[in-house]
UniProtKB/TrEMBL annotation:
PANTHER family registered for this protein in UniProt: ALKALINE PHOSPHATASE LIKE PROTEIN, INNER MEMBRANE PROTEIN YQAA
InterPro entries the UniProt entry points to: DedA_domain
Keyword terms: Membrane, Transmembrane, Transmembrane helix
Organism of derivation: Rugosibacter aromaticivorans
Name of the protein: Membrane protein
TM stretches of this protein: 46-66, 87-111
Top-rank taxon, per record: Bacteria
Length: 140
């Protein structure tokens, strides 16, 4: 049986799951990552990289969609986004977090935080999360 097709499909599926779960769509990229490395442990590094890239690109998609919105001018809107404005791009280190992660990506885009530092902080946080997931898989 040819497992290369299955592996390629699995890696592509992981990338898509990671991308979609970083947008406003709910997803379970961590489960997809765990399933893939359980079936193909030799592909752990590739799975880690693809999940991180896909999830970061999904977060940046949310960033760019929010950046297309009109700039915020109302004081009460800006007060609610004080965390993102106060910490700047490094706040996107928390873009992996459930519930607030998508909101932080959108806030960063809406507030016009610089995209490149934002993408780097976002990727770092998402990579750390997937690293913890993979490390935890060793304990299962």
């Amino acid at each position: 049986m040819d497992f290369s097709f299955t592996l390629q499909f699995g890696l592509a599926g992981l990338f898509i799951a990671a991308f979609l779960s970083a947008t406003v769509l709910p997803g379970g990229s961590e489960l997809a990552l765990l399933a893939l490395i359980k079936l193909h442990p030799e592909q752990t590094e590739a799975a880690f990289v693809l999940a991180t890239i896909g999830n970061t690109l999904g977060g940046m998609t949310t960033y760019w969609m929010a950046r297309a919105l009109p700039e915020p001018h109302e004081p009460h809107s800006l007060q609610r986004l004080a965390l993102a404005r106060r910490w700047g791009a490094p706040v996107l280190l928390l873009a992996w977090a459930p519930v607030i992660g998508d909101a932080l990506c959108a806030a960063a885009g809406w507030l016009r935080l610089p995209w490149l530092p934002g993408a780097l902080w976002m990727a770092l946080g998402k990579a750390a999360r997937y690293g913890v997931v993979i490390a935890g898989a060793g304990w299962l």
